[in-house]
Design goal:
The complex is a heterodimer of chains A (108) and B (121). Chain A contains no helices and 9 strands. Chain A is an all-beta fold. Classes of the chains: A mainly beta (108), B mainly beta (121).
């Protein structure tokens, strides 16, 4: 089955840029979606179809996807961005989603 | 606006069953699929299965086959998750989530608030 690998944690100072990776075999051929989850809350979609943002998500959140790595980039990081982030693809051959293990973003 | 509102927290004994509901509003219920995703304490997201609200077709994760049933009541726009033979490691927050996008690249644009199910003797 398809596997998505994320680093367990990423730390960044306020105002800097955070990059969270999601690795998978030829992931560039798939559409990747990203969710933010704060403690005690449901996941929130922040990027879909590799690069698109839902209404209400700041432009500071952007995505890219090529080769074996997809990346969620958060520019001008603020304390409010501290959360767990999960990547997801849809495995169409099996008709089910695959989630990455999640990355905890810490704002120093 | 779209809302998915789930039923309240449950405490169950091992071997029991639980039924969690997810009431949808703000959109045409039968036009979207619903997945159920759970999250054990301190863990990641685990997909359990999904139901096509239009025709009732389901696809369950292999891990839950035989123990889970997902249904919908289209007259009231409610999706249900029924999990049987509960074990302590079923203790988790259970979420419903609406499908969006192309059928080959679904994502989840709206989520319920979550329902905590605690399994304890």
């Amino acid at each position: 089955s398809y596997v998505l690998t994320q680093p367990p944690s990423v730390s960044v100072a306020p105002g800097q840029t955070a990059r969270i990776t999601c690795e998978g075999n030829n992931i560039g051929s798939k559409s990747v979606h990203w969710y933010q989850q704060k403690p005690g809350q449901a996941p929130l979609l922040v990027v879909y179809d590799d690069t698109d943002r839902p209404s209400g998500i700041p432009e500071r959140f952007s995505g890219s996807n090529s080769g074996n790595t997809a990346t969620l980039t958060i520019s001008r990081v603020a304390a409010g961005d501290e959360a767990d982030y999960f990547c997801q693809v849809w495995e169409s051959s099996a008709d089910h989603p695959v989630f990455g293990g999640g990355t905890k973003l810490t704002v120093l | 606006q779209v809302h998915l509102v789930q039923s309240g927290a449950e405490v169950k004994k091992p071997g029991a069953s639980v039924k969690v509901s997810c009431k949808a509003s703000g959109y045409t219920f039968i036009s979207y699929g619903i997945s159920w995703v759970r999250q054990a304490p301190g863990q990641g997201l685990e997909w359990m299965g999904w139901i096509n609200a239009h025709n009732g077709n389901t696809n369950y994760a292999q891990k839950f086959q035989g123990r889970v049933t997902m249904t919908t009541e289209t007259s009231t726009s409610i999706a249900y998750l029924d999990l049987r033979s509960l074990r302590s490691d079923d203790t988790a927050v259970y979420y419903c989530a609406r499908h969006q996008g192309d059928f080959s690249a679904y994502y989840f644009d709206y989520w319920g608030q979550g329902t905590l199910v605690t399994v304890s003797s």
